[in-house]
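Title: [Solved] RNase E specificity factor CsrD 3D structure

Original question kept below for reference.
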Amino acid sequence: MRKVAGMKLTNRLVAFVTLIVVCAMFVLFIGGAVSFRKLGTDFLSHYLGKVVVEIDQAIADPNTNENIGLWLPQLLKASDVVELEISSKTGMLYRYEQIQTAVKPLELIENRYDLPSNPGFFITIKSVPPYADFAYSIGAMSSLSLAVLVIVLALTWGIKWLRTQLLGAELLEHRGRLILAGRAEDVQTGDDREWPSTASIALDQMIVELRDARQERSRFDTFIRSNTFLDKLTGAANRVMFDNRLQTLLQDKGAQGAVLMLRIGDWETLTQNSGKSGADEWVKEVGNVLSNAIQRFPDAILARYYDTEFAILLTHQSAKDARLFANQLMKALARLSPPDPLEEENWAHMGMTFFSTGERRGRLMEEADMAKRSAVLQRSNGWHAFKKDVVADEARGSVRWRTLLGRVFESGGPELYRQVVQNTQGELLHTELLARIKDENGLVIKASRFLNGIELVGMNTVLDRSVVSKTLHQLRNGDGREVLSLNICADSLRQRTFQIWLRDILLQTPRSVLNRMQFEVSEGPLVKHFDAARPALRMVRALGCPLVVDQAGRSVVSTHYVKDIQPKYIKLHRSLIRDIHQRPENQLYVRSMLGACEATPTEVLAVGVESEPEWNVLLQLGVQGGQGRLFGAELSGNPVTLKRQRWRKK
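Solution (posted by the thread starter after getting help):
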């Protein structure tokens, strides 16, 4: 990929012109100085040559030879001759030397001349260099000074004119830099002064087409995800998404909950009397009631399983809470006024069954269907639960959760387990920290099970503060190379007090540590509270901490946040990864997510990879990394627990 030049076009041309002018002036001055020196030296040699001729003639003439000591010193002094010696092979005949001179001996010019009229005699002359006594004067150098001033003024005016002429190119270059920085939306229309104008107009058109293409791609991706996992009429999940989530949940250790099936009676008669549109409106009204009823369960899923049946999945809920929810739901449905010919007291029948880890999905749906049929036989609005033994009934009220969590935080907070994340080449990308707590019996509880209790007692910020503090402690005491990724609640990020606390603690941390700490936020809550959490996310990113969006695909939402907060990674929910080699609809969803991140630096990672067939399909789809038991199991950060885990693994 080509790199962008760091120097602007205008600065390049200005530097080039300035360098050319300065070089021309330098060459001119050097040439002038050499010429002046050459002229001075030639003049001095010519002058001294005439003096030598006079001396030669005087020595050859016997009449003037006797008076040479009278007139020669005055002539030599006037000629700036410091020393003169007339010698022959037999010895020195005459010597002249000035006692006082301002020139150093090393700076004198020495010349030797033979006397043609007196063979065997020669003269050695040491004279003052030409222009040695001259100093700079405005009068003498006025023309040269004026020339330099004119050149400087002309150069200044030329540079200013050049900058004015190239302003359009500089604006166009600045616009290109903003586009490369990912801010094309800020410069959709160029300045009228941009030059060349054809390139500016072409850039405007390309940005408009790119924006339309991205919007169309986003709409298409949303359309794919919606039609793959959402019901067109009610907007709830469809049967495919419900089965995927239920199958994934049944394979998780410690999972429990309930499956509810609601049937709307006399559908065919309703369709004949009210028409397809009227029946659809009634289904939408019932769907709205069900959707509002499950809002207090963050992990619950509502799906339109068949045309006249809705399915509800309650996760990590006890049998007692599920029965209480069923009673409240039937009371809410009883407030509706069904259209004719539905009977007001006999149109809604619901069956319920309970599940735990390891059960078969098909068997559960059969149990829910049998319970629903039992409710139909009662010939009144109501619900019926399938009779089965509930193995794990861990009902916890707010008091029990508050007591358990209070004990956990008093003892130092949750324990942070570790799981590695690798890229497609097998290199370590980072290590994710997973919060775990222990119940009264010492059993480890996953975050998916105790987060409901955290929200119930309002201790989200307490949990997040503890996790952030522990992560910073590990980074400061680590080897200086490990990258840790921690999970944080979107609800905490939208609280002002937590934002201030997080800002202060991050500002006290060196940049080298912050660059190795990543914040993970769940996609669903992030989109729900996006406007409130966005300032905190931007602040965290500005301080040097990369952002990660996890549990992508758990619910079908828009991916507009990718462009806004620019996360480093997006982690796909494990329900999309489980048996993806056997589920084409999940592969289509993953392709859609990869397409949404294609024009951004965001990379897509798969979570919950447990088999080679799953990983091979993900590599073919184009994911950039993976996380799961295939690459490494969850390991405790506690040395004692870690040693026990490794011993069990062996």
